[in-house]
Write a structure and sequence with these properties.
Helix content is 40%, strand content 12%. It is an alpha+beta fold. It starts with 46 loop residues before the first strand and ends with a helix. Keywords: Signal, Transport.
């Protein structure tokens, strides 16, 4: 889940039953039977809605929602901005205390936990999920049932300096992982370059880079029965990731917040991140007097290995309605309105968030940006981690093992053995 950028998306029609990540006899979040979503009457909807949204979404949403309330005078909407760093605990506490909002922006990796707490209302049949990126739909599913609508999406790609790559004799980013590493090594050899590629050496969120490399090798970290960190494909992925640090291609102790500056200066000409980095590096370059920097870099898909398909991590946030709402029809009416393609395009203009509705990408605002269009293509095969209620706790242990790999040279086998032991101890949380 990304903690800075955002977007909106949605539509109207029929709910889909999806595969999701089945857990513990097919159920991975609160309750045994598949919940049935009740119909919504949007024509007579009324009431006052409390809406929580994090970061810039919380700041910008009131401006967009004014159009909704103008068109629905019987519905009043109060938006409360929530800081990202306290959001998770605020939600958990509100669920426990029975003081949840009516509608909220919910992090994709929180879905399993909140459904396990029996807090979210299943997505009604008036919301058609068919037009969204498949990976985004997966983030709304727990035990095969949708409990939200994708609001905004993002995924990760490899950023690289085309000018430095050319000096290194690379005119096209390799699709294979071994060749990709060789490219990074060649770029490190160029004048002014300190490290070939910036990779996160463990710490919170490093899984968002490691897992795409694993998925692109055909690996998975979960199956129908639970977590599967200690497979040969996962072990080889972690060894591959660790080799960048072992071979001196990546810095195991990078300074905080230096990625953009080092990329612009050329000190570190490659990194893996999301679409929000485009504006950050270009704005920084302009401050340094380089108005043409946009022509000096490009983005490329996550490299593959062992016959895998390039698959990045799909992040973002969902829009969910809480079961405790006293204005359910009004709540889903708001979500349905936010689902319209034209609303998504307006939201993109306000926030630069990427639409989760695929048809919104046909708008010239997005379609004419070549780099952005590549992110749109990557989103078609992007994947979601398992929706176990325990995922947040388990993946923290995984990140800790990756830090040992990057900084202490721990082997992939030992790291994944430890991660598996922790996952088995914690369980799925179902």
């Amino acid at each position: 889940m990304r903690l800075s950028l955002k977007v909106v998306a949605l539509a109207a029609g029929t709910a889909l039953a999806l595969t999701g990540c089945g857990r513990d006899e097919g159920n991975n979040g609160g309750g045994g039977d598949t919940p049935t979503a009740q119909a919504v009457d949007t024509a007579k909807a009324s009431g006052t809605l409390e809406v929580w949204a994090m970061g810039a979404e919380g700041e910008k949403l009131p401006e967009l929602v004014k159009e909704f309330t103008d068109a629905h005078p019987d519905i009043k909407v109060n938006v409360t901005p929530v800081p990202w760093d306290s959001a998770h605990d605020k939600f958990v506490n509100s669920i426990t205390a029975g003081t949840t909002p009516d509608v909220a922006m919910v992090g994709t990796t929180w879905m399993g936990e909140f459904v396990g707490m029996d807090a979210l209302d299943p997505t009604p049949s008036s919301i058609d999920l068919a037009g969204f990126f498949p990976g985004a739909v997966d983030t709304t599913k727990v035990g095969g049932t949708s409990y939200a609508v994708p609001w905004y999406v993002e995924t990760r790609m490899a950023y690289y300096r085309t000018d430095i790559a050319e000096k290194a004799g690379v005119t096209e980013v390799p699709t294979g992982q071994d060749e990709f590493k060789q490219m990074a090594a060649k770029m490190k050899e160029q004048d002014g370059v300190k490290w070939g590629i910036s990779l996160q050496p463990g710490r919170t969120g490093s899984w968002q880079t490691v897992l795409p490399l694993a998925w692109s090798r055909g690996a998975e970290i979960a199956d129908d029965k639970g977590y599967t960190f200690d497979t040969p494909a996962m072990v080889s992925t972690v060894d591959y990731y660790g080799s960048f640090f072992k071979d001196g291609i990546s810095d195991p102790n990078p300074p905080e917040g230096q990625t953009e500056a080092d990329f612009v200066s050329g000190a570190v000409p490659m990194f893996v991140s999301g679409p929000w980095m485009m504006s950050l590096v270009e704005d920084l370059a302009k401050q340094d007097g380089d108005a043409a920097f946009a022509d000096k870099y490009d983005v490329a898909p996550i490299p593959t290995a062992d016959g895998g398909q390039s698959s990045s991590f799909i992040g973002g946030s969902n829009l969910a309605v809480f079961k405790a709402t006293k204005s359910r029809d009004a709540a889903w009416t708001l979500v349905e309105w936010l689902s319209q393609p034209e609303t998504q395009v307006k939201w993109y203009g306000l926030t630069s968030d990427l639409p989760s509705l695929q048809s919104a990408w046909e708008d010239d605002t997005l379609a004419k940006d070549a780099k952005l269009a590549k992110f749109g293509e990557a989103l078609k095969t992007a994947k979601v981690p398992p929706t176990f209620p325990s995922f947040e706790q388990v993946i923290e242990s995984f990140d800790n093992e990756i830090e040992k790999v990057a900084k202490q040279g721990l082997s992939g086998a030992d790291a994944m053995k430890a991660a598996q032991a922790q996952a088995d101890s914690i369980g799925t949380g179902a």
